[in-house]
Write a structure and sequence with these properties.
Shape: globular
Radius of gyration: 13 Å
Strand content: 15-25%
Low-confidence stretches: none
Largest sheet: 4 strands, mixed
Strand order of the largest sheet: 1-4-3-2
Number of strands: 4
Number of helices: 3
Helix content: 25-40%
Structural class: alpha/beta
Length: 108
């Protein structure tokens, strides 16, 4: 695990853009940290780099719990597991489908 301290939101987004080069089906990006740490900025940069035509449509899945984005490298599943009450609730979100061959970005 690597830890980064980034001073500006643009730096955090740029980290996500750089991570997009690593994206491939089956890969999971696990983003953890307190509220406001920049997890969604990283996800927005990563997903926006994979789908550059509509980066403004990359939103936090805080209330929907999961968003999917078709990209040139495959479907990206963007999960926010912060509000789940029970561990088994993740199955109802399509978690197994995401891990079966798509790209996953998981915040918690």
């Amino acid at each position: 695990m690597r830890a980064f301290t980034l001073a500006e939101e643009s730096d955090t987004t740029a980290l996500g853009v750089a991570l997009a080069d690593l994206a491939r089906p089956g890969l999971v990006f696990a983003l953890t940290g307190p509220l406001g740490a920049g997890k969604t900025c990283i996800a927005r940069g990563l997903i926006g780099a994979l789908e550059p035509e509509h980066p403004e449509q990359v939103v936090s899945p805080t209330f929907t719990l999961v968003q999917t984005y078709p990209t040139s490298k495959g479907t990206v599943w963007h999960f926010d597991l912060y509000r789940l009450k029970q561990p088994q609730d993740v199955i109802e979100l399509g978690f197994e489908d995401a891990l079966a061959g798509d790209i996953s970005v998981i915040e918690w």
